[in-house]
Design a protein that fits this description.
By secondary structure, this protein is mainly alpha-helical. The protein has 17 helices and 2 strands.
Length: about 400
């Protein structure tokens, strides 16, 4: 981990000097980031399989532990295969080897067959085809391309720090434009990740399972859930559905293994992995108090809005709006990159999300102390990279109605 991340950091620094702080559409840093993920995740999974006792591993670690050292050709194939070399996604080594050796679909169908209760549709789909999934994802790519060529150009992110706009427009207008510009910036990410997913599916990789109606899922290594992102009602849910496989990597190599401060350490590692632009660090450091505040609100407030469907609906609408505005505020530096425009934007927003989130954590943590309850039951640590099954489909070895043994 230390060697891989350090080498990536050195390359990221050299990239800044080579390209004079700019971002080109094609350069070496993207593939190197994916290789860093694969190298470090495989190293930890080999450590789990070859150096640790099985009873010391979590169920997920046991599932993906690698029991023997890969050969050179297997290692290079996993790291450099053309399906994921440009933008990923990163996947578990054992899943990739199953795919290369022709066992990927059959093994997952056998898992379903072994636990078949007549409800998971296994008999209906003996030889699933990725055609429908690939076609659907390519159509999504086409829509995202159109949106990128229209909305993204119409709502440039840099206008948020235009001096005339900042000085003349009222706060609500600037807040609304920030929301629209961030929404308009998403289609390029949707396009890249959905296309990468479709490429893997077209090769026959990414089969996840079959639901109770016999519908095939090819979302095992999907990197994004557009519906989950656009309807997220909490900061954690948004993170769970955005760059999913990177979330899996962060959880595998950092969050589940950090003895203390797993949330903070995970966000710091994510910032280091993304690069050396100051905006990245503003984004991930800002995300820490927001995540803690959202967790505190859910723990202390949510139960009062579950008495009826209308009340719950109002709560969901309010939390959706709050989540989307917090995301806009948090990721703006990620797109602005430099210190000066980032500070200009935060000053124009009066640092309101920073202040609100920190005060929320302080107030709710104080009010929660007398109860003495803890969310870390059974030794688990809740956080942005502790995904629940519905939000992280790639962690499921089969369909949702089949429990992992």
């Amino acid at each position: 981990m230390i060697m891989s991340v350090s080498y990536l950091a050195v390359c990221q620094v050299s990239r800044v000097f080579i390209y004079n702080y700019g971002i080109l559409s094609t350069d070496f840093s993207g593939p190197l980031m994916i290789i860093t993920q694969k190298t470090t995740m495989l190293a930890f999974q080999m450590h789990d399989g070859m150096c640790k006792k099985r009873e010391d591993l979590t169920s997920a670690q046991r599932l993906h532990a690698v029991d023997s050292k890969p050969s050179l050709i297997e290692y290079l194939s996993y790291n450099l295969n053309f399906l994921s070399i440009l933008v990923g996604p990163c996947s578990h080594y054992k899943d990739y080897i199953d795919f290369i050796e022709g066992r990927h679909v059959q093994r997952r169908l056998r898992r379903l067959s072994a636990s078949n209760t007549g409800q998971n549709g296994y008999d209906k789909v003996p030889e699933p085809s990725p055609m429908a999934a690939v076609t659907r994802k390519l159509l999504i790519c086409a829509v995202c391309m159109v949106l990128f060529l229209t909305l993204t150009k119409a709502f440039p992110v840099t206008y948020n720090v235009d001096s005339h706009f900042v000085n003349e427009a009222p706060f609500l207008t600037r807040l609304t434009y920030a929301f629209l510009s961030i929404q308009a910036a998403r289609p390029k990410f949707y396009f890249a990740w959905t296309l990468a997913d479709a490429i893997n599916n077209a090769a026959g990789y990414g089969f996840k399972g079959v639901d109770e109606a016999g519908q095939v899922s090819w979302d095992l290594i999907s990197n994004i859930s557009i519906w989950g992102i656009e309807t997220a009602t909490s900061f954690k849910k948004f993170i769970d559905h955005w760059n999913i496989q990177t979330g899996v990597w962060l959880k595998t190599v950092c969050y589940d293994r950090a003895p203390r401060y797993p949330t903070a350490l995970t966000f710091i590692l994510s910032a280091l992995w993304h690069g050396v632009y100051p905006g990245y660090y503003f984004t991930f450091i800002t995300a820490i108090p927001i995540t803690l505040a959202a967790r505190a609100v859910r723990k202390n407030v949510r139960q009062y809005f579950l008495s009826s469907y209308p009340v719950k609906l109002v709560y969901d609408v309010v939390t959706w709006a709050a989540t989307q505005l917090c995301i806009c505020y948090t990721v703006m530096p990620f797109l602005l990159l430099a210190v000066e425009p980032t500070m200009q934007y935060y000053r124009s927003m009066y640092f309101h999300i920073h202040i609100i989130s920190i005060l929320t954590v302080i107030v709710l943590s104080q009010s929660h102390k007398p109860g003495g309850s803890s969310s870390s039951n059974n030794g688990t640590k809740p956080g942005p990279y502790d995904p629940h099954p519905q939000a992280q489909p790639q962690l499921q070895p089969s369909n949702n109605n089949v429990k992992r043994k």
